[in-house]
Structures are given as structure tokens and as C-alpha cells.
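Request: Not sure, any thoughts?
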Amino acid sequence: MTKKDETTENGPILKDLTDQEATALCAELREELVRDVSRTGGHLASNLGAVELTVAIHRVFDTSQDRLVFDVGHQCYLHKMLTGRREQMSTLRQYGGIAGFPKPNESIHDAFIAGHASNSVAVALGMAQARTALGEDYKVLALIGDGALTGGLAYEGLSNAGQCGQQLLVILNDNGMSITRNVGGVAQLLARQRLKPKYLRFKQNYRRVMHAFWLGRQIYKVTHELKRALKQSLLPCSMFEDMGFTYLGPVDGHDVAQLTKTLRYASTLNEPVALHVRTVKGKGFAPAEANPDAFHGVSPFDPETGKALKSGGENFSAVFGRTLVRLARTDRRVCAMTAAMVSGTGLVPFSKAFPKRFFDVGIAEGCAVSMAAGMAKQGAVPVFAVYSTFLQRSYDMLLHDVAIDRLHVVFAVDRAGLVGDDGETHHGVFDVAYLDTIPGMKVYAPANFSELDRMLEQAVCQDSGPVAVRYPRGGQGGYQEDSGEENAVILRTGKDITLAGYGMEINELLSAADQLAGQGIQAEVLKWNVITPLDCTLAVESVKKTGALLVAEECAEQGGVGQRALAALEEAGVPARTALVNCGAGYVPHGAVSLLKRDLGLDGAGVFRRAMEVLGRDQ
């Protein structure tokens, strides 16, 4: 394959490809994609389903000028391969390599940052409005999956975009799945849409002929309204047309020639257009087609068999799910809910054991929190399992629907802290700060599996009001003891410096304490079990003894536990040499967690070096 699929001087990157060449390119890219992702891990099934669609887009649109906005963005791998990054796919999601989501600072072809769902239409609408206001000329596209249509923000965007009266192409990639099989009326509506007859070819030719002369244009207006009225009387009404869009499709998402023809037609329409494309998640790789859920996000695997190269082992999510099943067996009030993350949050066993007490709301975190508030108000004990980065989407509901009435809703905050390869859009480094602003909120921070089991039971069965249990992705570390029910405990006594933290960072503090001991320095290690409300009594007493405090935590600098601890020292009038080690004031890029912690100084060696600096000791 020549490099004409990767570079261009003017116009679409693949403008010169014939249909036959485009088909061959799709097969080549699909093979490369499986090979590359088998080495790096990543989002496979969604990308396999979007190969022909991506190639067709790049045959019609120039993404260096036209703006292609991805929703979520995990299906952007082919786009990256076609826009100069094909040779860099071996670095996908790796430390220092290319990201697994669109990043404008990575390429001019990446129009907008992506990572969370349902915002693409609103973003694209903003770009279209800016284009008009500034008198510029380019096309704007939003590529959104049917799973993202379970989020209300998508409808807010569609409602406004359909009335904008200017060029905006919304491409609905409909594979009948989001991450797991879609739920609710949207999936049923799209299934009905597929039954509509295809009339695109006639429509295109008729429009071209009638617009060639004045009388034809007048006739077209009349017949267009007649056609619309007839179609509405005979066919189920399209919600897109009701919103003001010209609806095209459904189109076979794996027929690159037909896709290209349809996109070329859509590009001629100076109005809001919704193009419905049917795809198969995992297309072309038998293991992924057979089990698309398992191949949504994968670790390195054998490209021949699809089998993972190594087993993941026990993890916090699985322990959470197992504990919740245990609690639900003895209390019929316990319910579980998730926002399209059944498998990722460990709730598959619960969903099977208690199907009538399990709720998947789709990609609608705000809805989940409001729904949980309603359940709690009526006497149920709802447990919402959600990734930290996605819980922030429901901040208003936390404040308004849950906290004002002090409703007992339990938040199982998964993927807390650094998550690694997915990068800045997925790191769970802000919940420590924003949950602390919720009046009446209590936040547990278990450091291992046994603590998660006990703290979750306490949150569900003993606490009242809003309560969160935050825990990281993956497995536990070397510290596996249960530190007890106190808000804060001393794990190791010392006299020279206090090392304080919570959660999995305790492992790094203990490692740093060992290294300090090798230098003749006795570090006292303090562990917080509850970080909101933060009890600093023990920390103040410890620092009175040691005269120095270092707080290390996997969270953003502003609003972290460290800042609150320093304020407590100030209020108590305790002078001390201090240091805060955290994720800083910016965003943390993608890469292995161990490498990110090294760069941030959050590993044992980094904490040791910073402690030595606080003490004014040469290393």
C-alpha cells in the first residue's frame, strides 16, 4: 500500500482511491489493527466495527480543515492510522506514545478532545455556529455511537442542532451495543429505523436534476413536502426528522462504496443531516465478533486466538461485586446500579443473582444518581458503581438530589486515582476534592481487598446519608492487613518525619519508610481510612512529635487531603516542615501507572527523595 492513504496536499486523504482500492485498504487496516492492539492493548471491537466508515469519511472529507468530532473517541484508531500516525501504532496508549483518544495537540486532524460520552453533537454544533459567525467554509461532522444516545446530553445537542439551519452532519454508528447491549427505548427505536425502505439513490438523482433550473427548484419544494407528508403517514416517524434533521439511512456500515456515495451526497446538503450507519462491533475478527463485550477494552492478546497473554488476577472491582452480592443476600433493600459498566464495575454476578434489584441506566450518570436518590427516599439502599471520572458528570445531582435530604446512597467509586493507559480523560484524580464539597458526605479509602470488604459493608449496613467508597483499578499491593475501623491509624511509629496518606499509596509510604530507615531516619506512617470528613487529630499529634509532615496522594493538588492536613496544622498552631506529593495542578497523561507515579514522585523512591529534602538531608 502506498503512502497516499496517510498524507495529502489538498482535499481528503483518500480522495483518489477507487472503490476496489478502498475495500483492499479496509482489509489491510483491519489486519494491522488486530496485530497492533494485540501488542499494546486497547479498544478493539469498536474500532473493528468502524473500519469502512472511517475510510469512507477520509475519502470524502479533509479532516485537516473539516472538523470531525468523535463521541467518546475510543473508535479513533483507524482515523489515527490514516492521518500520519500509522507507523506509531506500536506506541498506542504507551508511555510517551500516541493516545488512545483524539488529542488536538497530537494532530491537526484531531478536531476536539474526547473520552467521555454524549457531547459530540453539542461540540459540533458549536463549531458550526463559529464557522458561520466567522464567515469561514468547512464541513462539520459528529460521529456518535448508539450507546452515547443513552445520555441526555446527546439529545440536548440534537434538539438544538436540528434547528440550526446550517451544514452539520451527525453520523450515528449503530452497532446495537454501547459497551454492553443497549437498554431502553433508543435501542428499540433504532431497530425500527432499520425497517425503512431505501430511497437515497432516487433522492440524490432527483435533487440534482430539479436543482438545475428555476422551475425545477420550485417543483422540488412542493414534491419534497408531499414526500415528507406521505412518508410520515406510512412509516414510523423518525425522531431525527422531528428534530429538524434530514434523515439518511440506514446504510450498511461495511459497504465502503455505498458509505462513500452516501457521505458524498450528505456533504452537498447545506442543512442538518443525520446519517444512520449499521455496523457490527468486532467485525472481521472472529473472537471479537463472537464476544464484543470482552473485546471492548483488552489487554495484550494472541492475535490468532484472541486469548489474553496473561490473566488479570483478582482485582478491586471483583471484590466489590462479590461483597455486594453477600450483603444483598441478607438485606433485600440493597440494590445495585451502573451506567453502562456492568462488567467493568464487577456487577455481573449481582445482575445474575438479583436481576430485579439490578439497574443499568446506560451512559447516564446523572440519571443514575437521581434514580438512586428516589430509591433511597422510598427505603431502598441503592449502591451506584461508577468510575471516578464519570461520577463527576453527576455533581449537581449529588449536591441537590442526594445531599440536601441526606439520603443514604452508596457510591462505589471505581478507578480512583491513576488508571494508566487511557490518560487524562479517565484518571480518577478529582473525586477527592469534589466529594469533599458535598455536605454530609463520608468517603472511605480502603488500601486492600479486606478493607474494601469491611468498609463497603459499613457503608451499606451501618452508615446513613451519602457515603462513598473509593478504590483503584487492578489488584492490591503488599500491604494487606485490615487497619481497623478508626478514621486514622498509625501503621509504623517514628520520631523524625510523618508520612501520611490513604488507599494504595500506603504501599509507597511504607516503602519510603524502609528506605529512610536505611539512612537512620525513623519515619512515622499514618494512614487515613476516612478522608471525608477528614479527622486530623492523630496527624497533628504525630507532627507535634516529628516536626515534619509529608502527605502523598494520587489526586489533584487543589482540594486534596494534603491541603486540608496543612490547614489543620495551621489551625492547631503546630509549626512543621511540610511537603505535598500529588498529581499536581494540571492533567496527567497516559502511560503505565508505575511510570506516571515515578514522574510525579508518588512511588516509594520519589517519596523517599522528597522526605530527604524536607529533612534537609543529602541523599
Q: What stands out?
A: The CA atoms of residues 94 and 591 lie 5 Å apart. Residues 19-40 form the longest helix (22 residues).
